[in-house]
Specification:
TubC_N_sf, single chain, 9 helices, Condensation domain-containing protein, elongated, Condensation_dom, 279 residues, catalytic activity
Length: 279
């Protein structure tokens, strides 16, 4: 029997292989036929060599994130899909807004602030990505760079907390909004220029680590442009959508079936009712 055909039959029979310390181990279901079990034992060494080669090539490729095909609709990453589903259930919610607040003293050049925000949005596709459902599946839509609106408001500094809170809780529309907002609040009761910059993003486009990167890039660009220096950052080799595509390809259904089958066998004789304490 050819090796490929044997592997296919073993897979259909629910056999799960694993390599441990250069040894082939197999979880064999009780329902396997005697003939198929015999072929497995006869071809054990050949199966081990083949699976070692496949596993080595798979590991090398699966760890390498490359650019996604440009003609393909991009699914959401697993974490994005969770946030999208929550948004669908909750509606207009600010629970997953991720604000960052920066106090400043001195003149702020608003034209440069706006230019920097535009550069950041151009640089990171995920900030101009919206999310749309098709046949029950959410997809990413990466929109082209667009004109942005920079809000500037004069406020009484004694009302700062309530004003910031009101701004932070404004919900994002995942189907149409940019996933980042920038507001500048200037204190109207001071002679010198001072105030607060509020950067607000939706969690579907950022996390704590990413926020640090974005704010560092933002102020690096702003300082550079103010000083008349080089405003170029190193080009990004991949975007978040590339990662989302890679994740879906790496953990696609076929690759998870083996793990599912293994645990089904492990839990086959587990009683449906247990005596474990629930609290």
């Amino acid at each position: 029997m050819k090796l490929k055909k044997l592997l296919d039959e073993l897979k259909q029979a629910g056999v799960i292989f694993k390599i441990e310390e250069d040894r082939l181990k197999a979880n064999i279901p009780k329902s396997i036929t005697p003939e198929l079990k015999k072929q497995l034992l006869l071809n054990k060494n050949e199966l081990k060599d083949f699976l070692l080669r496949v596993n080595s090539a798979s590991n090398k490729n699966s760890l390498m994130i490359t650019k996604r095909p440009t003609d393909l609709q991009v699914r959401l990453s697993f974490s994005q899909e969770r946030l999208w589903l929550i948004d669908q259930l909750q509606g207009d919610s600010s629970e997953y807004n991720r604000p960052a607040l920066f106090h400043f003293r001195g003149a702020v050049q608003f034209d440069i602030l706006k230019r920097v925000l535009s550069m950041i949005i151009d640089r990171h596709e995920i900030l101009r990505t919206t999310y749309h459902e098709q046949d029950g599946i959410p997809y990413q839509c990466i929109n082209p760079p667009c004109d942005i609106h920079l809000e500037k408001k004069y406020i009484d500094r004694h009302n700062l907390t309530s004003i910031i809170e009101a701004e932070v809780v404004k919900p994002f529309d995942l189907s149409s909004d940019l996933m980042v907002r920038l507001c500048v609040f200037l204190y109207q009761d001071r002679t010198e220029d001072s105030g607060v910059i509020l950067l607000n993003l939706h969690h579907i486009a950022t996390d704590g680590w990413s926020m640090e990167i974005l704010t560092k890039e933002f102020f690096t660009l702003y300082t550079s442009l103010i000083e008349g220096g080089d405003s170029q950052l190193a080009e990004l080799e991949i975007q978040y959508a590339d990662y989302a595509h890679w994740q879906r390809e790496t953990f696609q259904k076929e690759k998870l079936e083996g793990q599912l089958s293994y645990w089904e066998q492990q839990l086959e004789d587990v009683p449906g009712v247990h005596g474990l304490p629930l609290s």
